[in-house]
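Anyone else keep sequences and structure tokens together like this?

Example one:
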Amino acid sequence: MEAIQTIPLGDWEVTGFIESHFALDGGSMFGVIPQKLWKKLIPPDENNLVAMQTNLYVIKTGDANILCDTGLGDALSDFDRKVYSPRSPSRINEALHAIGTPPEAITHVIFTHLHTDHSNGAVTGDPDHPDLRFPNAEYIVQTDEWEDATHPNERTSAVYLQHRLKPLADSGRLRLVEGDEEILPGVAVRKTGGHTRGHQGVRVTRGGLLFLYYGDILPSRFHLKGPYVAAVDLLPLDTMAVKRVLLKECCDTPTIIGFDHDIAVMFGRIVRKEKWLDVEPVETRSVSLV
């Protein structure tokens, strides 16, 4: 059984759930950091793969149901399975129904970026001819991200899949934003760059509290240190710069961060230890997804 976790944010709430389990090459997650260091944090298997999750977050405001990223989903080709080594079926529909927000009730989908493990859950069915999963949602992406995703190069073509992005454009509900922008009162995006040129974070403010979801800028609690940056980041120095500002803002405050790929901490706070920063899990209201 896996837990669906919910935190209050004033009179709103944010719910997190595990969409799927998968695995990636350990070196790809930690870049220039030697294996002898990162393997102490996440032990690799015999194929040098480390366990990952796609943790998704739904912000319920009473008037809107906002989904942050969509995970791997179920429209996976054989190639996708080779890249991501999925170790469980997607539970996106099941979890959304369990929290009372079935796909048709999602009003907004905010993509931090459009890599397969963050956007592919937006479609369903045949991976070669997919359908939209969220028929009533507005889809929010940075203009730079959309441009890069729809014009991939040799390095990015494996993670930007044109035929699965096309339904978003065809929906008539694709909203391209440029830089920092308020999506709804209390819900904003902040362009970060770094992981991709058009990567963005989500900031939710309500009742004097702040929830942040910065996608692959902070994919896990093990990525707090500046140099711990994924090898696939296109602009790693920008990732490091964003992390420095973000961690300074959040350290020893009530700010709650959602980690998109952490296998143990879904909601956490940044705290200062004697010589380093650490993450403390946040108490949540949990129910089991059988």
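And example two:
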Amino acid sequence: MFIPLHDDNPIRRTPVVTYVLVAVNVLVFIWSARLGDLQQQLLVYRHGFVPLRIAQLSARQPIVVPVEEVVHVSFFGSLEVQRPLQLDPNPREIWASLFTCMFLHGSWLHLLGNMWFLYLFGNNVEDRLGPLPYLILYLGGGLIASASHWLFEPRSTIPVIGASGAVAVILGAYTIAWPWARVQTLVFLLFFFTVIEVPALVVNGVWFLGQLVAGQESLRRATAGGVAWWAHVGGFIAGALLMPLFSALFARNNNQPKWFDESDY
């Protein structure tokens, strides 16, 4: 397992948008963690991305999903029961969920993993493109990532939350722009671990291949799991394809419209 710790790719401007994205994700998680279990489930179903809800835009039929509720049955105990939740065909809520899902997380580990990768690799992408193009790449790429998941799981009622699809876009963008940037990486091999310098192409490439293999395995087993593997795959590819275009249009390196520097190699 690879855990990137630091790269040797300097930045010249404060990555304001990256900091704001991290702060918003953290604040939303702290707020949502204060909700009760039932309220958290309602939040995830209504503001996470549920693929089957895309069909509601045309079919206009409600969807019924199960939620868990703790019912106090006596002074000494309680019982966990399932009850149905009806998701109405609300176009505004459905379209908004494509964006709001990027700012919801299921646990501190889920949040910290996404935010660490965003901070580590996003600061360079923001430095290259500038704040607004970077934000457009992040949010627009996140939409592409969700669409990739929908293509493979259009009938799924499992809500997808987390910034990982949008972060995958940033990983793809960084990898195509700075493939040979050296990344200090913590490597785990069973009970052995060490820190080595690895090219970004290797670190992020191994991650991408892992997502691709896991996605193919989920298709082979025909099971809709809780991880949106194809959102990660689609997001990474989108970032790799869009970064040259965005860099040609918006690159701020020496005011030249190119998508890589000779100094990167």
